[in-house]
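Changelog note: in this version the structure field was regenerated for every chain. One regenerated record is shown below for reference.
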Amino acid sequence: MLPTTHAFWWLVAFAALFAIPGRLYARRHREGLEDFIIARNSQGATATVLTLMASTLGTWILFGPAQAATWGGLGAIAGYALGSLAPRLVMIPLGRRLRELSPGGHSLTEFVMSRYGRPMYAFTLVIMLFYLFISLAAGITAIAKMVALLAPVPLWATCSVVMAATLLYTLYGGLRASIFTDKVQMIVILPLVAVLMVVGWQAAGGLAPTLAGLEATAPRLLDLTDPGGLKAGLTFFLAVMLTGLFYQGNWQRVYAARNNRAVSLGFLLGGLLSAPMIFVMGLFGLAFVGLGLAGDGSVALFSVLLADIPAWFAVGLIFLGLALVMSSADTTISAASSMIAVDGGRLLPGASGPRLMRLSRWLILLLALPVTFVAAQGYSVLYLFLLADLLCCAAAFPVFFGLFNRRFDGRAAVLATVSGLVAGLTLFPAPGDALDTLMESFLLATFMPVVTGLALLALLPAKQGFDFAALGAGARRFEG
């Protein structure tokens, strides 16, 4: 373990290495609200790849995949990795379609309001903001727990440093500053992840001890056809894929991309390059079980790594953890800022761009307080994550089917979503219960809206279809 004082000051120094360049960049690129929230058509394919990878590879990759592997094996890891890849691939046609229909758009909620009306808009807004809150709290909780494994630094101290450093540049520079620091953070993340893999390989003694231990104690974890692993993999796949479609940070990058080619290349390569890294992180969970290590599966990766590591590697882990959490946290904060500005502009149609920007900044500062408080408690937010995932699964088909079908209206979208929620929640485990019915719950939430929506489309009287040209007219241009 590192001494507390040393670890804390390393934490502050590394946070400053990201925050100060981000702040300086923001000062040189001060634009109006439109640029602050969307940076429209400004990023090429390379920048889009890097920012998507950085926002995908949050601190959770050091915990989630390995923990999933301890009870779901290779099937769970594969589902996790493919689930992180799938939304990137699905976002390509969806993103290109929305750019074509609403070239001046800003967010998914903006589309839902124009396409379906207030009831579906309100539901979509709630689940997107709920997911942003949970995602931010979980990411900061993860880095606080990681630092505590390396040194006895209080959780509240790590949470405060990370939140303050991220707000320093994100609230000032918006999406452009987030994308700039993402590129800086990827310079840190890629080599340090490579070092982590090498050190992890050495700590585990290669493949042989892990494979021998698994074959003796838990051979099902190596079996890709194991029913438990398949259930876990399918659940993770649906949850991660469909939740990614409701993440405003992804939609910001759709509009920030220079053209459709940048969207396609950026999302394709961003997904293809991130998925293998997530899969490899999951293998540490198999090593944890195979080597018979003591402790909690939620810290499986660190149980493998921390048996006997030099101080320089512990410091490097702090640097890596900060790069991972700040790259995803600034994306989440920027996403929340954009939604506050866009949706606040709907509630305050006469508000100027500067006023909406001030409103966004103040509300984000207020939001940071409960997020930091929750993160400092060290709670597991897995249950809330799963609930947010279920909400997204129920809304996915109703929301996106309307991008392609003119006759699917707001009433059908709401009814289809409600059918998915009712079906999914009937089997959704209660807090503290075993997760035995989780896959069935997600399958019902995902596919019941498809059945309901198509049935409504067939049974309801035909009427004039939606005019997609109205989507472009529904996007407000923010000046100043």
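Spot check on this record: Residues 4-380 form a domain with the Sodium/glucose cotransporter fold (CATH 1.20.1730.10). The mean pLDDT is 88.
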